[in-house]
Amino acid sequence: MTEDDHTAAIAVLNDACRAEPGAGWVLTPGVQAFSEPQLAQVVAAVKAFADFSEDNNPHGERDFGAFEVGGARLFWKIDYYDLDLCMASPDPADPAVTKRVLTLMLAEEY
């Protein structure tokens, strides 16, 4: 697999992680404090995020985003862990050895 293919595989897996909120998502206390309608807006914004640029996606992995909802500035970030969530993944392009964790936070919680 070439480096470009490796990066493209990571990006596809990251897009899938963003599309499926659930066990792989961590919400910080600031995000957890949102009302249900606000939280639904925030989750929808993460799922629909497509504003990737050289500034927020320099490695092409689509693992970070920043956006605003209702006047609140938020960030999301995907990290790659081994299957035990103890160490970094040995290969983020291989879902058989990688668990993705998407952290959704208020900008001030960064």
Automatic annotation (TrEMBL):
<protein>
    <recommendedName>
        <fullName>DUF3768 domain-containing protein</fullName>
    </recommendedName>
</protein>
<dbReference type="Pfam" id="PF12599">
    <property type="entry name" value="DUF3768"/>
</dbReference>
<dbReference type="InterPro" id="IPR022243">
    <property type="entry name" value="DUF3768"/>
</dbReference>
